[in-house]
Structure formats: C-alpha cells, structure tokens
Amino acid sequence: MKKTFYLIGLIFCTLFSQELVGQNETRLLAQANLDQQKVTVKQLLSHLNEVEGIQLSYSKENIPNREIEIPASDMTIQDLLNLLAEKGGLTIHRVGKNIVLKPIRQERYTVSGFVLDEATGEAMIGTTVQIKGTQNGVITNVYGFYSLTLDRGEYVLLISYVGYEPQEVELDLNQDLKIDVKIKSQASLLEEVVITSKEVDENVTKNRMGYAQLSSKTIKNVPALMGEVDIIRAIRLLPGVQMTSETSSGFSVRGGSPDQNLILLDEAVVYNPSHLFGFFSTFNNDAVKNVEFYKGNMPVRYGGRLSSLLDIRMKEGNNQRFTLNGGISPISARLTVEAPIVKDKGSIILSGRRTYADLLARTASRKESVDNTALFFYDLNMKANYTLNENNRIFISSYAGRDVLSFKSPSGSFSTDFRWGNLTTTARWNHVFNKRLFSNTSLIFSDYNYQLGLGDQDFRFDWVSNLRDYTAKIDFDYFLNTKNTISVGVSSTLHRFDPGKVKVSGSGENDTARISRSNALEHAIYLGNDHQVSNKLQLAYGGRLAVFQNIGEGVHYTFDSEFNRTDSTFYKKGEIYNTYTQFEPRISATYQLSQTSSLKVSYARTTQFLHLASNSISGTPLDIWFPSSPNVKPQLADQVSGGYFRNFFDNKLEVSIETYYKWFNRQIDFKDHASLLLNEELEGELRVGKAKAYGAELMIKKPEGKLNGWISFTWSNSIRKIDAINGGKEYRSSYDRPINFSTVLNYTFNKRVSLSANWVYFDGLPFTTPSGRMYYGNSIVPTYTERNGDRIPSYHRLDLGLTIEQKKNEGRKMKGAWVFSIYNAYGRKNANFISFRTKEGTNETEAIRYTIFRWVPSIAYNFKF
Amino acid sequence: MKISSVYKILFVLVSMVSVSCEEPIDWKVGTDQIKLVAEGRVTNEFINHQVKLIETADYFSSVGPKMVEGAQVSVNDGESTYIYEELEPGIYTSVDAFAGVIGRRYSLSIQLNSPLGESTVFTASSLMLPPMIVDSLYYKKDVPFGDNVDTEERDSLYVLGIYGQEVEVDNGYFFDVFVNDFKETDNVVNLGIFDDEFLEGDYFENFLIYEVAFGNPGDSITMMMYSVEDEYVEFLEALVIEIEGSEPLGFNGPPANVVGNLSNGGLGYFYAASVDTSYTVLID
Q1: Mutation choice for A interface testing from B187, B188, B251 by most A CBs within 10 A
Q2: Which of A841, B121, B129, B151 lies most in the core, judged by the most C-beta atoms within 10 Å?
Q3: How far from each other are the two terminal CA atoms of chain B, in whole angstroms?
C-alpha cells in the first residue's frame, strides 16, 4: 500500500523512504558522534542516517534548506532529533516503529498580478515570470495574468520576454501580494541599435513544440507584397507551413488542408481570412498585438480543427496617451487611433484600412466605365478595455471586413455586384476570483457571408450565403503552485448555416431556391495541467471532450452506396437528431538535457466537425462551410512529434529540429468534377478516406541583434487514400511540397536604416496531367491515369525591403518611415499552375504555364505620433 | 496636431508591375493504354441512328481521331434488337430506321475484333425520358458586354428564350441551335446544357437560354431540345470542364477522367433522348 502511495506520489514529488527496523529507545539516548558546529538540515539527516545508523523516513524533496547551529558537542541522538524539530523546520512523528520527519507546514503566500507594456499599458501575453536562480516560474496567460504561490521568504522575480528589457522585482513575501509589472520594450529603451544584454532561453525551456510566436514587429520586418504587411504571408515562412498558392491566403500545415486551420481573432473564428480572392489576408497588422501559432499541438483550450491554431490578438490600445499611426501603400491607406479612456484604467483602439485603387482610377479617369466599377476592400478593427477594479477587467472587440467588386455596363443594362466579408465581435470579462484563480468569460459572434448579384433590366440573379456562430465560453487558469498551472473551461457554440439562397427575377418569372439551412451545436469541456515535474522535466497533459450535435430545423438526406439520394427526413426546430462525442487527449513533455538543450515530445488528437466545400486549392470567397451530420462523420487526426532544441552563443541563436507523423482519419475529399456550390445534395459529393503526413522541420533563428531572422527547412510528405478517388490508390495531397526552404533576414545598419530580405524555395504542388485524349462530341477531351501524379516546377523567389526612418526633427512629434520593397526581385517566372488546352482550330494540344507576379516593386510610407 | 499637414507630406509613388502572363511550355506527359471511346444515341425520331467508335490517343499527338473498324454493334430496347452496319470507317448506323419509345431502356452492345484496354465486349444502356414541350421559341435583342464593341456586333446580338413545360422527372437537357441550317452548337463547349434541379416540373416563362452573336434579320433559328437522363448532363458538364482546362484556382477541382456509361473500362456515352424542335425567324 505504501509502495503504491509512493508510486502515485512519484508524479508530483520524488519521495525517499526507508523502513525503520527495530530501533530501540536506548539507541536514541546514545551520544552522537558529531563534531561540526554548523550543519545543514540535509547534512544532519544524512549524519543521523549514515553515521549514527538511525533509520529515518522523510521526503528528500521537502527538506528545508537551512543551517542549524549545534550548541554543544555532547549531544545525544535524541537531542539532535529535537534540534531538528526546533531549528530545522521539521516535525517528528513516531508511526509504529518508524521515525517520520516532515517539514513544518510553511506559511505560503501568493504573488499575482499582470505584466504590462510600460509604453502602452497593454497586457503582455506569454511572458515568463521566474524565481531568479531556479527553474520555477509561470508564463502569463493570454490576458497577461500571472500567479506564483511560494513559501514565505525573500525572492527576486525575473520577468522576461523577447524584445523587452528583462526586469527583476525584489519582494519580501510575508503576505499575499499583488504586483503589476511594467516592462519596457528594448526599441523604446535605447536610442542606439539594440543588442540585447541577456537573451531569453524560451526556445529550450518552454514546454511547447510546433509553436511560434510572432509580434507585429517581426511580421512588419518581412518584405511585403505591394507594401501590404501580411500576417499569413509571414506565417507561411515558418517550417511546416506551406503556401497553397501565390494568390491565396490559404496555408497548409503539416499536410493538412487550409480548412483544417483554426484562425482566431480575439477568440472569434475567422472563416475566410482572404481579401481580393486571397491576394491579401484580412488581418491589418496595425491592429495586431500578438500572434501565436501551433502546428497541431494546440493547448487543450482549443479545438475544432485538425492541423493548426493561428491565435491572433488585437492590440488593446494605449492607456497612457493618445497615439496616431498610419501609412499608405500602393494599394491601401491605414489609420489607427489609440487613446486612454481613463489613464491606466482603460483604453480604446480604432484601426481602419481601405484599398483605394478604385478611387485613384476614378480621379484619374473621367471615363464612365471606371465610374461604374468598384473593386476594393476594407477592414475595421475596434477594441476597448476597461479595468473596473483590480479584480475585474472588461474588453470588447470587433472586426468588420468586406470586399466589394461591382460593375455596371455603360448603358446600365448589365450590372454585377459581388461582396463578401467577415464580421466578428467578442465581449470578455476577466475576473480574478482570488490570488490564484483567474477566469475569463467570453461571448463571441462570428459571421461570414457573401452576396453575388448580376443581371439586367429583364433578368436578375441574386445569390446569398451566410454562416453564423454564437459562442459562450468560460476559461479558468488556476495557479496551483509554482509547479502546476491548471486550466479548465467549457464552451458552447451555435452554428447556423445558410449555405445558399438564389433569387431569380425577371420580367415574367420570379423564383427562389434555397439550399436547406441547418444548425449545429458544438460544445467542449477541457482540463489540463502545465506541470514542472522537476528541474529537468516539464509535462503538459490534459484532455478535451468535444460534443457536436445537429439540431433542427433541418433536413437529412439518405444516400445509397452510389451516392444517390434515396430518402429525406425533416426535423423540427430544436430537435437534436445526431450527436458525436470525441475525447481528445493531449500530452507534451520537455526534458532539459542541459542549460542549452532539451528534448521535447508530444501527442495530440484533434477533431473537426466543420468542413469547407472547396474545389480549389487556393479557396474562393464562394466556398461554403458545412457541418458534420449523420452522413458526414467528423474528421480526426492524431499527431506524434518529437524534437531536439538547442540554443547557442548564450541563447542568441535558437535551433530546433522537429519530426512528426500524423494520421488523418475520415479525411474528406470530393468526387471527380464535384458540384459544390448551390447543391442541395452536397453530402453526396463527398468522398472520405484516410491520409497521412510526416516530415522533419529545421529552424535556425536569431531573434535579436543587428542581424536577425530565421532559416527554416522542411521535408514533408502528405498522402491520401480514398476509395473513390484515383481508383482507390494512394495519391499525393494537393498541398504536398516535399522540400520547402525559407529564409528571412533583417539587417539594421543604424537607427534609421534597415534592410530585410527573404528567399524561399519549394517544390511545386502536385497536379494531374493528362496521359491521353479522347474525341467526343466533336471535341478533344484529356484522359488521365493518376491523380496528382505530376508536379508543377519548383518555385523560388527573393523579396527585398528597405526601411528608412525619417530624421528626427526637434519640435515635431511625428516619426515617419519609408518602406521600399520589391517582391520577386529577380523576376523568376514561377508557374502558379499549368494547364493543358487544345490549340484553337487544330488537333494539337499544348501545356500553358501561368505566372502571376514578376518584379512587384512598391513604396509605402508609415507614420506615428 | 494638424491632420491636414500629415496628409500634405504623404504621397505615394505607385509603381506596380504585376505581370500575369501565360505562355506555352514544353511538358512531358505519361502515356496510357489505348481505350475505346463510344459516342452514340437513340432518339424518338424515326431515323437511322448512329454509334461512333474511336480510339484514345497520346495527349500531344497531332493526328485526327483513329476510328475503330470491324466491330459488331447492336441496340436492344427489350422488345427488338437493331443491328448496326459500318457505313463509314468507325461509324455504325442502324440497318433499319426506328423511333425510340419514351419509357424504354436502350442497351448498346459492342463486340470488337481485337481488345482495347482489357476487353473486346462493351455495353451501355440508357432510359428514354419524356421531352420538354417548348410552346414558343422567341428572341430579344441585347447589348453586348464591354466598351470596345463595334456597331455590327452591337446590332447583331440576339438572345433566345423559351416558354415551355418542364417534365416532372429527374432529367436534364442539352440543345442544339441552328441558324439557317448552320449548326452553332458544333462542339460540346458550345452546346446548351442545363439540368432541372431547381426547375423540376416548372413552366418556363421567358427563360433565356442562348445567345446568337451575329444574327441578321431574316435568319431562321431552329432549336432542338433533347431531354436526357441526369447522368448524361453531368457527363457533358464534366466534358466542358475538362475541355476548357480545369485549373487549380478555379471551381472545378482537380482534373479527372470523364467516365461515361460504358462497361469494361470503355469511355464515352450511349444515351437515349427525346427531342422537341422549335423555330423562329429573326426580324429587326
């Protein structure tokens, strides 16, 4: 029984025990053979044990680290034991014949608070708060909160975050303390070029794999296409992330499809992160504070997608002073205003971006045709926060983005109007229940919709589609002690799908057709622990129980083995007609091999209940999301990964090698020539099978310094096997690029001038090439043998960027910077895709290469007050 | 702070060279086993019906179709068997004229001299469905899209519309358009194709379906509307996708074989169709 107890106890602390065998009282009265005048408790214990032969039972882990003075030289063993009780902070119990020593319960107190950016008052996410000289510490949560419970005593807290000056806080912990720590960005600290004094060793010590954190500054340093700084284009330079196409905001993570990425903006799902059919993403970098990216090892708090989590947090706004910044690029103008509501208590940020190519064209040309054309997009980000008191803080944030593409023929007879966009709103309440328990409650709304209308005086076609989410969730972080941080929470989402409604109106006819609407509930409950087992071993373990329910009003179609509809069943409002339950275990471990190296392993299971119906690799605004249902089982993935992490040159250079293997179960693909739009029987177009992905990723990163940046190399494979596709044989997934190399470098010449460059090389995407042709209906039609059996030529590209800050002028508060960039600097004709066609008027066929961007130079100007 | 002064110093040099170009490149493709492609139909017209047999070819070959000669071809409708004879190489015509009957299933059987793919025997069958009765074919003049349209083009665009009763069965349509006996719909891409997914059983009023680009007053227009099984419309739609080149950025998914209804790995389609013919004459 005792052994069992110890075994269980092993997970939390290492216990050391010895059985006391037949100790008699007289032995205790014998004189001790100790000639030292000062000993530590530890030394005294081992003396009693080894020299005096007294068998003691105690836990090595909990021995107080203090010295005891030995008052006399003629002490008995009993005296020494008494001394241990008096001065050594131990209690002595007799249990049967055992002498059990336990540390006297220490007074323990908690220090908690927020870590804030000194300049703006914004919460600092993921900052390390460590007890100096130990491995013990915590990481601030996504609201910047930390809590450490320690024995009474004096400590020095070390607060560190990449790009910020590490800060030490001395404290005498003799009561519970609330300390908000403000840390300074190194950029704002020094006039000279920053060379960080002390680097942070998070790469090695943080128990995280397949993970990257990007600040808006890092993202800004990547040369931008047409001057538009783009988070997703930066993410695609990380190892394990593949670009789907040059003109797309989609990305594939470790063999997954773009719809298997969970993209969150302040916790709200962004269902379509693209502007302008994917040339730009929906995230305006000016409004972004922090980006965290997980390649499949996402924390238990998150779920619902198989492959990755892109967690984007908006800026909170400066609560110290009014600031204004903005800029113009060849395609857009941006303006961001930040202001305190009440200094130190609350702030607001408003950020907007709009492309203006259409406005310029309208000014430049008086042509009627231009007047009738609109092609633009805009983004609006808003966030406000207010600290009610030290235990309560509220946030509200919102994002609205829209693309507009419309045209009217000069005579006005024909017009088309296409609009799409996301709208999200998040309301949050941070509440500190007590010094160790932090909670966040969120109400979240997310909407993606599009409208496509076209027609003339006689005939009009209007098509609308919409997906809406209503989410309520509550998350708790419980800072149990310095070794355990427990997270627990529950969330529930109502999804409402309105996949398509078409209205045809004309002189004679009015008709409306609607693809059946449907609803679903998605719930999750999770529990996890970040556990510092020992100085060397850290574990994070937990599980997430995900439940998905189809709820009426809705219609369910039954299909036969040939995917023909055989029956339909209608469900009334509120009726739950299908439920899936899935448990997702997640575990990861970091073992510190030395001060500068560690081994990490992890396993994660993920489930996906919502799927994207898309026939195109790059995705289109018209793609719709559809729910799992009795016909569509949830997609499932299991990933194991392992890695070696090593820092060099006093943590200045971070290196990691990670490998992974991933099994996808019930991977969804679509039948040949599938019809996915406005199809009531969409589920009949799905084909389901298995997929696997495996690979290795190397990352070499120099986060700070005059020269900074990273080099990433990925080797990967992504293979699918689906019965009805490719004759049931394995085929390469459409996102498979075995070799992928990216390098991002920045060089700061002086405080005004910096140069950035990135070069990428990767294999082209697999595609299907014809192997023959047939004649039918007086036409030539290609025939094929293998899906994705060929590959587009490899892709490489160099982008350059030069930033020149304007000279500081006395008496002028404004700081301006010019950014010159060139995308595809050596003008390689990269094939975006290859297509085959019949030469007009002949029996001959030919291959055509399509190139999108060559030499795209741009100039942008940014300013800041 | 003066926002206006900020804007004064803001300016942009837009120098954007975004070249989206397409150019032919050399590309090697694999080769595939030669297969049989059949194309044939039975309609409810009293005529000699035809079946064409052709071989598949290498993708980049520049020669015309290679016909399959010397095959035995027949069609059975459950009551009679119609024997076909090879009047031209690879083109097989029913010896007797006959009209297909609505509601009957027509089965094609092909016996080759030597195997194509793995077989010498191929079959296919198709059900004859009722036609759409087009009450009226009409037209209206329209203005072409775009700025650079010359006067001749501007004056010669006619849009055809129909009034007619759609039949209450799961079917689809394709149609041929003739202008003064010249077949406008001379290949699959130019065919008019639609299914009845949203329109089943509706009365079509003012239903615009086809543009005649260079019409002249006095031209006579003939429309032959074929009612076929849904699967054949899907087949035609897939052909159009493949012919026009399905590219990965579009809506069509990865390219794939267009599989018809022939057995034993044969390609192509044998279908039954009921026809309705309507006429109109263009007047200025």
Answers
A1: B251
A2: B129
A3: 67
